[in-house]
Design a protein that fits this description.
Blueprint lengths: L1 H10 L7 E9 L4 H14 L5 E6 L2 E6 L9 E3 L6 H14 L10 E7 L4 E9 L5 H20 L12 H13 L2 H12 L22 E7 L2 H14 L3 H17 L3 E8 L16 E8 L6 H17 L5 H8 L13 E7 L3 E3 L4 E5 L10 E8 L2 E9 L5 H18 L16 H4 L15 H14 L15 H15 L5 H5 L4 H12 L7 E6 L7 E4 L2 H11 L5 E5 L12 H15 L5 E6 L2 H14 L4 E7 L12 H24 L26 H15 L10 E6 L22 E6 L9 H20 L9
Parallel strand pairs: 4-5, 10-13, 16-17, 16-18, 18-19, 19-20, 20-21
Antiparallel strand pairs: 1-6, 1-12, 2-3, 5-6, 7-14, 8-9, 11-12, 13-14, 15-17
């Protein structure tokens, strides 16, 4: 992966398209000294940021330095007359300024000050040392370090279990076990007869790659995105797959070709130890879909879902390997494989600390890597459908038309996916998918308390005489918008998205938004009754009711089966401890079942929530009959190991899993396209392409909360149901780590299948039988000894 970026830099030195350029809004008493100290701590913490790259005899060579100085220039924009223009000019220059790969650190920063409490930090890194996920890691860690320095109590970040170099060694180990041959076979078959896919350009293509770019965007109405989600669930696909299908059908029509090939990126962080490691894990894959003979949207969706699943199952194959397999005709004016790219993103939100608020704001485009790069960006107030396009090739109206055509098509088919695909010329429906804010001015009621507090902030940003005008009509710009948002968030202590702000651009409308944001909200978890009947003690499962539907039926008609899920706002709050998250679930449990005994069940990470909820219920003198962990390792198992022990456990797990997969392949029990399923360790779903990014983000957040939580032993009954298809053996605890926590009765049962299929077919029958047997024994024995936390 790094070799690809190194070669790309050699072919086009100073290629700004290889830069990652971000802008962070900082609200708080930060100084250049504090910012510099925090960033230098990050450089010291992450080995990859102290790495340089030079040409060696056999290719690029990495040089890791013990230290790497990062100077942070500071500029007070109050000294300049045209702040808005200067801010954009400086941001663009920083985004496009090249790096020298032979000099570390390959990251730079500049602090732009607007007031004593308001600053912007421009952060730019080369792709050879980071990816988008990495920048989110740096944002969170930077805010934590800065906050501690401001408060006079330096923060201590948890030790990193591995560095990027450890990941590289692990990749090599997997390669030595023959991973490449299996994946090569998939891509060789999938891309046989490859022909480049492109959309006709508005301007002649220059003889060499150009990078000048712009971004255009449309805010989609919630009704459309909700309809896409319903269709996805009904068809077993994902929201992204549904939206991607609409776009690919539009591209198919524009190109007049059924064989559609685009690129996409996957995060590449298949292991929990890599969640907080900075480095270029992202990998580019080919999505090739043949739409020949497709008559309706449902058929098209099925084909795109198959394409995505195959790509994800072989997602560890490097782009360089795919290029070697395809051997495309090289053209200096084009990307080696793709002219078009499509991705799904979650916009970086904010980090709120005691002394600092860090917020990600839209950045300057560093440069185009593709002719067209479409992306779906999720924000709190909705989704944006955007495209970064090469301005030397396309006019903005051409790109907007493609976005609108996609939304028009989806609007016409999502209510009935079996309906024939509509003609794309009829684009009037796109207007229904675009949020069109109203800017009609009405008199401002200054007697209103929210308006009274809002007006000074508004006037300080836009000047006097702007009270009844819309924000943009009154001379507002992107920079002033984020300054006003920051002031509103400080004054009213609310969370305000830029989309929500621009959709309500007057003082009156904005006051309504603030009023609703500060109103009491439903803070309670919700409980779904998957099986409401019966007089026996209910089973209460954690999260994802879809996962437990079959199990609830097979447990028996005499035992209710409930599922508790968190309120939406509980997810992702960095101020919440793991105990507070579990307490939120306990509130929902208590509402659904005021008195014990309680039977709590979790799968994978849900078993950690069930365990902590049981501890809290016991401390509250409630009766907990049993905690059931379905193929979930005990919380904190690796954290209680030394770094060497954790490495041996992880390495053994991966290699044993790989050997099991190879054995199944040789016996004809495992399709080649599913050979790499062993790499999905984190999420308990049979189809990883069905896991939306929001769920992945939530699991990572919960893991981070758990890493800071003390794990106490438990004296009650614990039932662990292990998946027989998961690795056992060298360095791996056969009790999945529960023996060291269980001071009471611990029962271990087995069920066929693996971590992802344990709730399917024959496997779920065994899980249900194990649960029934344990509960029958407990109930026949009468009241168990009370558990102690």
């Amino acid at each position: 992966m790094q070799e690809r970026f190194f070669v790309a830099e050699l072919l086009a030195p100073g290629n700004a398209g290889l830069n990652i350029a971000l802008r962070w809004s900082l609200v708080g008493p930060v100084s250049g000294t504090i910012v510099g100290l925090a960033l230098r701590q990050l450089v010291a913490r992450h080995e990859i940021l102290r790495t340089a790259f030079v040409e060696g005899e056999n290719g690029p060579v990495q040089r890791v330095y013990p230290t790497a100085d990062l100077h942070v220039p500071e500029l007070d924009l109050r000294l300049l007359g045209t702040v808005e223009r200067e801010f954009d000019r400086i941001s663009a220059e920083e985004a496009r300024r090249p790096f020298d790969l032979s000099r570390a650190p390959l990251m730079r920063a500049q602090l732009l000050r607007f007031s004593e409490q308001e600053s912007f930090l421009l952060i730019t890194a080369h792709h050879i040392v980071a990816d988008g996920w990495s920048m989110g890691i740096l944002a969170r860690e930077f805010a934590t370090l800065c906050d501690g320095l401001i408060g006079g109590t330096p923060a201590a970040l948890p030790e990193l279990p591995v560095q990027y170099s450890d990941y590289a060694l692990w990749q090599q180990a997997l390669s030595d076990f023959g991973e490449g041959a299996a994946a090569d076979a998939y891509w060789r078959a999938r891309l046989a007869g490859f022909r480049r896919f492109e959309i006709a350009t508005d301007f002649p293509r220059p003889p060499a790659l150009t990078r000048d770019s712009a971004i255009t965007s449309i805010l989609m109405r919630p009704a459309l995105t909700a309809a896409a989600d319903r269709v996805a669930r009904a068809s077993g696909a994902t929201w992204f797959t549904t939206m991607l299908t609409g776009l690919l059908l539009v591209l198919r029509a524009r190109a007049g070709r059924d064989d559609v090939i685009v690129g996409t990126q996957v995060a590449g962080r298949y292991e929990v130890e890599l969640e907080n490691v900075v480095g270029p894990f992202i990998n580019t894959l080919a999505l090739r879909t043949d739409f020949a003979g497709v008559q309706n949207f449902a058929e098209a969706l099925a084909r795109v879902a198959d394409t995505l699943q195959g790509a994800l199952e072989n997602g560890t194959t490097a782009l360089e390997t795919i290029i070697e397999i395809v051997k495309p005709e090289r053209d200096p004016s084009r990307h080696p494989l793709f002219s078009i790219n499509v991705i799904q993103q979650r916009a970086f939100d904010e980090v709120r600390c005691e002394n600092l608020l860090l917020r990600g704001v839209p950045s300057q485009s560093a440069g185009a890597l593709f002719d067209l790069n479409f992306f779906f960006v999720e924000r709190t107030e909705g989704w944006r459908f955007s495209c970064e396009y090469n301005t030397a090739l396309y006019r903005p109206e051409t790109v907007v038309a493609m976005l609108e055509d996609t939304l028009s098509l989806l609007t016409g088919v999502l209510d009935d996916p079996r309906r024939p695909i509509p003609q794309l010329a009829a684009r009037a429906a796109a207007a229904e998918a675009v949020a069109a804010p109203s800017s009609v001015a009405r008199p401002v009621d200054q007697a209103d308390d929210v308006v009274r507090r809002l007006l000074p902030l508004w006037r300080a940003t836009l000047g006097a005489g702007s009270d009844e005008a819309g924000f943009l009509d009154a001379g507002g710009h992107s920079l002033s918008a984020f300054r006003l948002i920051a002031r509103i968030q400080q004054t009213f202590e609310v969370r305000l998205e830029i989309d929500r702000f621009l959709g309500n651009p007057t003082v009156r409308a904005l006051a309504d938004v603030i009023r609703k944001a500060t109103a009491p909200r439903d803070a309670l978890a919700s409980v779904v009754a998957l099986q409401p009947h019966g007089a026996a003690t209910p089973i209460i499962a954690f999260d994802n009711p879809f996962l437990f539907q079959d199990l609830a039926k097979r447990i028996g008609a005499d035992r209710p089966f409930l599922c508790v899920m968190p309120a939406a706002h509980i997810n992702g709050d960095p101020a919440l401890s793991f105990a507070a998250v579990a307490a939120h679930y306990v509130e929902g449990i208590r509402r659904a079942q005021p008195q014990g005994p309680y039977i709590l069940l979790g799968h994978c990470f849900g078993s950690h929530l069930a365990y902590e909820a049981a501890q809290q219920l016991v401390r509250d003198r409630a009766d907990v009959a049993c905690v059931i962990a379905v193929d979930g390792w005990a919380p904190g198992h690796l954290a209680r190991r030394t770094r060497r022990e954790a490495f041996l456990i992880n390495t053994s797990y991966r290699l044993i899993r790989w050997q099991m997969a190879l054995a199944k392949l040789l016996r004809g029990q495992l399709p080649l396209t599913r050979l790499l399923e062993k790499l999905r360790l984190r999420l308990g779903r049979p189809n990883p392409s069905a896991v939306p990014d929001a769920e992945l983000e939530r699991v990572l957040w919960l893991k981070d909360r758990l890493s800071q939580h003390p794990i106490a032993p438990y004296s009650g009954t614990i039932l662990v149901v292990r998946a027989l298809g998961e690795p056992t053996g060298l360095f791996l605890d056969p009790t999945l780590g529960w023996r060291e926590l269980a001071t009471g009765r611990l029962e271990i049962r087995d069920a066929p299948g693996n971590h992802f299929t344990i709730f399917e077919g024959e496997s779920v029958q065994h899980v249900a039988a194990a649960v029934r047997q344990t509960l029958a024994r407990l109930e026949d024995a009468g009241a168990p000894e009370p558990a102690t936390a």
